[in-house]
Fold this protein.
Amino acid sequence: VMALIYTFGAISGAHANPAVTLGFWASGRFPARRIPGYVLAQITGAFAASAFIALTLPGHPTLGATLPHTGVANAFAWEVLLTAVLMLVILQVATGAKELGLIAAIAIGGTVGLEALVAGPICDASMNPARSLAPAVVSGRTEHLWLYLIAPALGALLAVGLWRALRLPQPTANTSEPIHA
């Protein structure tokens, strides 16, 4: 993810995740008219990667399909939480005066890595509908696909609400009240 952001961040914002694109739209930071093209590109890239895996590892039983390991409800809850945390980090490091530019790649890539490390054994830590869609279709393992399409979208939208709630009003230069830390 970090390499993707460094490579494509200046070109497309490094949108590789439909849930993140949805979150940016919901936050008012991405135009609705651009969503179809971005999602099509995200899904196309995911299918290209899945096709490569299928061609080079033809005997692999899941080809990278994301599957719950601790029950469907538990995996759903984890995917919502993981995507919400990821989206919140993305919004925080790519917003206004605090925008960190390409340094944001470290925070975002680190978040994905940490979440995959912690939650991979629980739910495969997808956080990305495109990342789950393509391997599920290519491998034929679609029985839990709905979970990995819906939970990340809900998590991204939850993060936008939390992000809005966390944003404090900025003091104006004409205020006579002291600012307390």
About this structure: DSSP finds seven helices and no strands in the chain. The chain has a mean pLDDT of 89.
